[in-house]
Design brief:
The radius of gyration is 26 Å and the shape is rod-shaped. Helix 1 packs antiparallel against helix 2. The protein is mainly alpha-helical. The protein starts with 10 loop residues before the first helix and ends in a 10-residue tail after the last helix. The chain has one domain.
């Protein structure tokens, strides 16, 4: 039985992270462009900045997890190949009784 110990990132979660990052970036850009100069603009920028940063961390985590899954598969495949090569002896002679 093959047991997968790596948690799988679903396509919906990945799409949500990408969409969240894009929405945050666009909303902050539009907000900065259209806001009148006032005292509360600093608060808006702070909230927008926090949203962009947290979305960027989520996106980075998704990309990292996706890459780690591929790395583990490649390491397992490489270990199997190494085992086959180490067990193979092209000069093996059978000695009979």
């Amino acid at each position: 039985m093959d047991i997968n110990t790596q948690p799988k990132v679903t396509a919906a979660f990945y799409a949500q992270a990408v969409a969240s990052f894009g929405i945050a970036l666009v909303a902050l850009s539009v907000g900065i462009f259209y806001l009148p100069v006032g005292g509360w603009i600093r608060a808006f920028l702070a909230v927008g900045l926090l949203y962009v940063v947290t979305s960027a961390f989520t996106l980075a985590k998704c990309v990292r997890d996706s890459q780690e899954v591929g790395t583990v598969v490649r390491r397992v495949d490489q270990a199997r190949i190494d085992k086959l090569i180490s067990e193979h002896d092209p000069f093996k002679t059978t000695v009979g009784p």
